[in-house]
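## retry 2 of 3
previous attempt timed out at serialization; input unchanged, resubmitting
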Amino acid sequence: MIRISILVACLFQMGIAHATTATTYAYEANSLKLAYSEISQAGTIRLFGCSRCDKSVFSFTTPPYILKQGNTVPFAFFLKDYWNAKYPTLFVDKNTSQVIQITY
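## retry succeeded, writing output
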């Protein structure tokens, strides 16, 4: 009886794990180019060397969250340092295609 209960619990947990879906896509590239407007606080990011990308240009309407080597940095810092981004990863919202986070 205990074995059946454990089996049912495991199958239920596996069903929950398979029911969850990702809310973002992650795109890795060799480098990026940033265009940003301080007035609208919107911009575009062009990825270079992304083998998995279905498109190379991504946009954002609010400044994305920035992580550099595991540490949070202000977006203003990223505006001056983005050209140093070696192998950046963009996290893009699955529904809106907006850039949420940039990690480099």
